[in-house]
Amino acid sequence: MKRNIIFNAFYTIGIVVSIVGLKWAYTAQNYPVMGVLVATALLFLYLKINIVKEVRNGIKEKENQYNASIKDKTN
């Protein structure tokens, strides 16, 4: 779980840096760099969405295990 939190923070920083770089590249009219920054921002966004889904599924599994153990104890 800690690994996922660290990756999530890294992906967020990557998205922010890409957006700031996009602003710089746009004002400097450096279009090839803009293309690379758009690609990296999309990559980080894709990875961030996947890791959030993974964390949600992990939380649901733990809740289901917890609820199952409670049902077993009450029976």
Walkthrough of the structure:
It is built from two helices and no strands. The protein is an all-alpha fold and 75 residues long. It has one domain. The two termini are 32 Å apart.
Q: Could you say which overall geometry the principal axes of the C-alpha atoms support? A: rod-shaped
Order of helices and strands: HH
Q: What proportion strand? A: under 5%
Radius of gyration over C-alpha positions, nearest whole angstrom: 20 Å
Count, helices: 2
The largest pleated sheet is described as:
none
Mean pLDDT: 92
Helix content: over 70%
Helices and strands: which structural class? mainly alpha
Instruction: Detail the poorly predicted runs.
Output: none
**How far is the first residue's CA from the last residue's CA?**
32 Å
Number of domains: 1
Q: How many DSSP-defined strands?
A: 0
